[in-house]
Design a protein that fits this description.
single chain; 312 residues; alpha/beta; nine-stranded mixed sheet; 33% helix; globular; binds threonylcarbamoyladenylate; binds magnesium ion
């Protein structure tokens, strides 16, 4: 029997999510801080709420395989792994072009990390929203991942609505596996043991290099690098492309402005698309205006510093 109180609560929280708000919800691994993954502003609110100073690609939570298939390309091997869903397994797959996910949810990558959580309330919530939810663990940046609703409430001082699903069964984050053609690579050990996946499905899973494993590739220093070189905190020279912020100088070359009004939220929303666009014009160097290091500016600057880091 559906619990009528819970159903009303899920409808209320789903409406908030559809309106672009952030809501914490239970999964079998840890509580997630969820937002509509197709809404850039909603996803940026996750970063603001967590105080996370860095744009990691986030795990996109789906209600069912049909929803997941609208977001990524599933090879036969990926389909085989997906038979373990719902569960504590995240698959990194090639993104489907035009899948509608916000750039800030995938950190501008052409792959996407997907999972169907094994928790009745999570699945009901995502289905009620009717859109995939981006969700990192529901803790302020630098703190432990929460496994009860009470920990989430304490972490955010009651500022975030929480769907209470009791304590999480697994208590550790999902295992992340990237499907690379016929090869499987574990990027993060987690709730579902690698040996168990291998045994259940009759597959072999490699383990990513130590640094890559901790980081998942989204965090490697030069991972986000565009083809162009980057010069930060500067004005453009002739022959360069220019990424402006706020009042832009006169410049005849290719230019985008992250936010003419100097709004960091708008700048974060535009960041990945504009970097891709400027990279595509083929300039050897992209000069970037100074960005204030406050609020979302910290994550923007982290992203730009990674893009500017020496390439391996
Ligand atoms: O159990 C979990 O996985 C929890 C619950 C809430 O589902 N979620 C979670 O999400 O741990 P998050 O955002 O904290 O972890 C995301 C991880 C990061 O290590 C990130 O680098 C990796 O997933 N990741 C996301 N997209 C990726 C991609 N396209 N390629 C490689 N790694 C990716
Ligand atoms: Mg986390």
């Amino acid at each position: 029997m559906p619990d009528p109180g819970k159903t009303a609560e899920i409808d209320r929280l789903a409406a908030l999510l559809r309106a672009g708000e952030v809501v914490a919800f239970p999964t079998e691994t840890v509580y997630g801080l969820g937002a509509d993954a197709t809404d850039a502003d909603a996803v940026l609110s996750i970063y603001e709420t967590k105080g996370r100073p860095r744009f990691n690609p986030l795990i996109i939570h789906c209600a069912d395989l049909a929803m997941a298939e609208t977001l990524a390309e599933f090879s036969l091997l990926a389909r085989k792994l997906a038979t373990l869903w719902p569960g504590g397994l995240t698959l990194v797959l090639p993104a489907r072009p035009g899948n509608g996910l916000a750039d800030v949810a995938t950190a501008g990558l052409d792959s996407v990390a997907l999972r169907i959580p094994d928790h009745k309330l999570a699945l009901e919530l995502i289905a009620a929203v009717g859109r995939p939810l981006a969700a990192p663990s529901a803790n302020p940046s630098g703190r432990l991942s929460p496994t009860t609703a009470e920990q989430v409430r304490r972490g955010f001082g009651g500022r975030v609505p929480v769907l209470d699903g009791g304590p999480c069964r697994a208590g550790v984050e999902s295992t992340i596996i990237r499907v690379e053609g016929e090869r499987l690579v574990q990027l993060r050990a987690g709730a579902l043991a690698r040996a168990e996946i291998e045994r259940t499905l009759g597959v072999t899973i490699d383990v990513a290099e130590k640094d890559a494993a901790v980081a998942a590739p989204g965090m490697l220093a030069s991972h986000y690098a565009p083809n162009a070189l980057m010069r930060l905190n500067t004005a453009p020279r002739a022959g360069e492309a220019f990424l402006a912020f706020g009042t832009a100088p006169e410049f005849g070359g290719p230019m985008r402005n992250l936010s003419a009004s100097g709004d960091l939220h708008e700048a974060a929303r535009n960041l990945f698309a504009m970097l891709h666009e400027l990279d595509a014009v083929g300039a050897g160097t992209i000069a970037v205006a100074p960005i204030p290091n406050a609020g979302l500016g910290e994550a923007i600057n982290d992203r730009l510093e990674r893009a500017a880091a020496p390439r391996p």
